Amino acid sequence: MKRVKYTIANWKMNGLNGAVKVVNSIDRHVKKTRHKKSKVVICPPFTLLTNFINAKTGINFGGQDCHHFNEGAFTGCISAQMLKSAGCKYVIIGHSERREYQKETSKELNLKIDIANKYNLKIIYCIGEKLSEIKIRKKILNSQLSSLPKKINIKNLIIAYEPVWAIGTGKTPTIGEINSIHLDIRNLLSKKIGKSKSQNISILYGGSVNPSNASDILNLDQVDGALVGGASLKSKDFSKIIDSYS
Ligand code: PGA
């Protein structure tokens, strides 16, 4: 069966300088090459979202997080409803940097996924083990997957497998490992939601994806795209990654 492929940029807290240029250049590239092999999504900082969305490019946009309530006294936070009303179609939830620095818990992530699902945002749910957890990787991934709400609409769910030790380090698991870990994740999903539903969920790889390794990673049969950090900030590099599907 054919799953949707995604090439997703996670700009993190970057992009103030030249962001419009980068988006325009990626947009031109996607249009010029009539690229249809993956859906291209950019998740910039919140302050840049509206400008980009209003510019009406062929690119989809998403937030990097959302709160688990709609509104209220939560200084510094943004809700799924707000992302939706700004025109976002996607939201990243559970990125390891938020788990680490914002101390996001499984319970909280479960509520965030739930509310993003209610607003029909496509959820890019990040999971991945730390270096010290490699030996118990499967157990860690399984417990992170337990944050998925029972009632989630599978059409709104994308999983991003991002080994924490691979993010921004230039290191990645081997190509064979990536494929087999993705297969493990699909089997874990299958136990939770059933085999046929699990076959439809796109599982992306993230962690030091760059123009040189993208083609090897993105053409693995278990990999349905990439979540790209550093290399998504340069339009040339990100465009090369977009072109890496065979
Ligand atoms: P990286 O980041 O591509 O810079 O390793 C990926 C991510 O954190 O999503």
- Number of beta-strand segments: 8
Structural class: alpha/beta
The CATH superfamily is known as Aldolase class I
Bound molecules: 2-phosphoglycolic acid
Order of helices and strands: EHEHEHEHHEHEHHEHEH
Shape: globular
Q: For the record, what CATH class applies?
A: Alpha Beta
Rg measurement, Å: 17 Å
Q: Helicity level, as a percent range?
A: 25-40%
Main-sheet strand order equals 1-2-3-4-5-6-7-8
CATH fold assignment: TIM Barrel
Biggest beta sheet summary: 8 strands, parallel, barrel
Question: What percent of residues are in strands?
Answer: 15-25%
CATH architecture: Alpha-Beta Barrel
Q: Indicate the low-confidence ranges by residue numbers.
A: none
Mean pLDDT, all residues? 95
Number of helices: 10
List the domain count as a whole number: 1
Distance separating the two termini: 17 Å
Q: How does this structure look, described?
A:
The protein is an alpha/beta fold. It is 39% helix and 15% strand. It is built from 10 helices and 8 strands. An 8-stranded parallel β-barrel has the order 1-2-3-4-5-6-7-8, surrounded by 5 helices. α3 (80-86) links the parallel β3 and β4 (90-93). The mean pLDDT is 95. The site of 2-phosphoglycolic acid has 13 residues, from β8.
